[in-house]
Recover the amino acids of this structure.
């Protein structure tokens, strides 16, 4: 089954801590956990107004309307609390689906699997929106994935992420090979 969320287990890439005020109170960083490059989000002061939420980018063109999806992830927090997960724009408009709620348990890893059926919303700009993160403390997410249907296996990357990593390695090898050939040419020209 295909993971529909890009940039998962790539640290802070794709993640954002959104807030009503006091941006300096929130930090997003790469964090090694469960053998992967997870993300750690830290809140050092609570936010006023609407509070704060965590979001992750999605590839909207891969998500179909009126279709069932399963979301899974591992989460660690130093606070026991309830949170919601939606597919909605960062401004809180254009809801595409509601996965419902999950609970973090203080100082424990929790594996979460929740489901939703998307609606007929056709606009773009939605994100994976994790609500009610307005407490001093930290939360770590790892192995985030969303698949079409109600069966989900162990975490796997988005296929485009694998292609991008392969391209980066190929480019690096090509550049290194080119440098070696240039150095060999210099050595040959000096030896003649």
């Amino acid at each position: 089954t295909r993971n529909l969320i890009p940039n998962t287990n790539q640290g802070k890439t794709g993640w954002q801590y959104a807030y009503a005020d006091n941006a300096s109170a929130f930090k997003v960083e790469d964090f090694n956990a469960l053998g992967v490059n997870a993300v750690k989000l830290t809140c050092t002061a609570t936010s006023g107004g609407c509070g704060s939420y965590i979001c992750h980018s999605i590839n909207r063109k891969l998500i179909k309307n009126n279709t069932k999806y399963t979301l899974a992830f591992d989460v660690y927090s130093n606070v026991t609390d309830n949170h919601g997960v939606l597919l909605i724009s960062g401004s809180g408009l254009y809801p595409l689906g509601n996965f419902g709620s999950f609970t973090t348990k203080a100082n424990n890893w929790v594996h979460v699997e929740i489901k939703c059926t998307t609606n007929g919303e056709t606009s773009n700009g939605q994100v994976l929106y994790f609500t009610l993160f307005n407490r001093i403390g930290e939360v770590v997410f790892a192995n985030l994935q969303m698949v079409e249907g109600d069966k989900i296996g162990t975490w796997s990357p988005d296929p485009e992420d694998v292609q991008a990593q392969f391209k980066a390695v190929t480019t690096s090898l090509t550049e290194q090979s080119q440098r070696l050939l240039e150095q060999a040419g210099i050595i040959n020209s000096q030896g003649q």
Observations:
- The CA atoms of residues 51 and 180 lie 55 Å apart.
- The beta strands are 15-19, 26-33, 36-43, 52-57, 68-77, 81-89, 97-104, 108-117, 126-130, 137-148.
- The helical segments are 159-191.
